[in-house]
Design a protein that fits this description.
- This protein is α/β, with parallel strands linked by helices.
- The chain folds into six domains: 57 residues, no CATH class; 96 residues, 3-Layer(aba) Sandwich (Glutaredoxin); 202 residues, NADH-ubiquinone oxidoreductase 51kDa subunit (Rossmann fold, 3-Layer(aba) Sandwich); 76 residues, Roll (Ubiquitin-like (UB roll)); 85 residues, NADH-ubiquinone oxidoreductase 51kDa subunit, iron-sulphur binding domain (de novo design (two linked rop proteins)), CATH 1.20.1440.230; 33 residues, no CATH class.
- Helix content is 44%, strand content 14%.
- The strands form three sheets. It has a six-stranded mixed sheet.
- A hairpin with a 5-residue loop joins β12 and β13.
- The longest helix is centred in the C-terminal third of the chain and has 18 residues.
- The relative contact order is 0.09.
Amino acid sequence: MKQFIQDLSEKNHHQATRLLQILRAIQSRYHYVPADAIEQLAGLLNKPRTQIISVVEFYSFFHLQPKGQFEILISDSITDHMLGKINLTSYLARQLKVAVGEVREDGIVSLDNTSCTGMCDQGPAGLVNGYALTRLDRARIDVITDLINQQKPLAAWPVELFHIEDNIHKPGLLLKQQINQGAALNVAFKRGLKETLAEIDKSGLRGRGGAGFKTAMKWQFCSEEAQSERYVVCNADEGEPGTFKDRVLLNSFAHQVFEGMTLCAAIIGAQKGFLYLRGEYLYLYDQLQCILDERRKAGLLGIDILGQGLNFDIEICMGAGAYICGEESALIESLEGKPGIPRNRPPYPVTQGYLGKPTVVNNVETFLAAAAIAVNGGDWFASVGTAKSKGTKILSISGDCARPGIYEYPFGTTIETVLMDCGAANVMGVQVGGPSGTFISNQEFDRKLAFEDLATGGSFIIFDESRNILDMVNNFTHFFAHESCGFCTPCRVGTSLLKKQFDKIVEGHGSAGDVAALEELCQVIKGYSHCGLGQTAANPVLTTLERYPELYQDKLKKISYEPGFDLDGALEIARRMANRTDAGAHLTQVGEDHE
């Protein structure tokens, strides 16, 4: 182990910023991060062991205690629950003879839950040693059980167990046709970089990760910073349950995404870029590395790109199971080898980002669109959409519909149109934008996809009338409590209290006062949390409580009284006593008298 870690550290140039990648390699080899490995790394990286431990403890894919030789994680997303995930996990546990959350006695296999794996259109899904398993059923579980008991290496497993589909059902402006490799760069150099930035500005392109900040403005701000060292970061950490569009874009449109990053580098003057790839997409890593190599050989990455004096290259960095790293400043912290705790803002990444240098962070879809705009012009993109929302939006659609998958629509499209296209019937409601977004009822399907109406990062989960909406809220509140980074009290404590308060109500132990307390707690979390996770964690409760208050009301505890008990009289006594200084003693006596 000492030699392995020594070689690993040398391969990563003993850089503490590479800590996540080093820990991923150790976890993969030993199925945990041994204490001796941490001690050795502390010396090699010149980093306190306590800081290394804090990183290991922060990310859910790292462990301080041994896991199984085959580590199986089953997606706990609401879409997987809708496909029978609970019964399937129980069956898997019985077949493998291991409890959920445990390691089998022989150390061969461990089983646990994980947050959404980004396979919502082909679940129930899971991971084995980081690689995605799709469309799990009892027959597949039987095959997996046999393979594990025989200790067959993953390379010998049937490829169909790992088969992943793009499921692009409705391509639009961006997905119908990819640009040719190098086309965006050639056009930009010929037109002029400032003029190309002006075209992106004219297009009205706004960030597609959810925030919707103007792309050209972000690039302009970064380019104007006095420091010469700048960075480009592509945020591919789409951990929002129900979102999987970036997975598809990186699988089938990676050249164009990398071209968009390189275009940005040319405009802002960056020499280094990062693709931060969520840990659940490990299966994409090798093919993305091959595409980067192709681009280097074609003169589209590396030194003197296209003979224009641009030096720029891209490195892929893998996440390790932390939803919060989808927030841009938390992502940058993670890139620097730290726990992904969001920074205070300002300063913003465009002025002080990676290693304190000006940094542009954009979503996968944003870079894809920017490259297409460079080729086709700003007017081409701005010709579709609405006055305030230009272009198209790529949606990840899952849940109760006949054709889950990827759809691209011009902004301004109604929800009703989307539901018709994907084959959704008897719809009760739609969760737009994932757990942090908005739940809309079937009375709102005339609303439109647009920043001025229903803004979304791309998640679109459909629920038909057979579903219990409170099951969805339960899943989301537990998700946020689990994924809170723990930095600030309103979120760390608040999401835990929210989970417990909601559980109390749905389990039938709540009163009307508990619903009022639930709503008050939501407002505290929303108003005082440090970052977007906490500020949106209460949305599932607030948006469903607003639309379906009767569902909460029906769950409240029904109190029965003995025959002859005068409830109205007791309440009147209580009201009178409430204004007395010794009210507490009197109310206690009332309670005892009428018990």
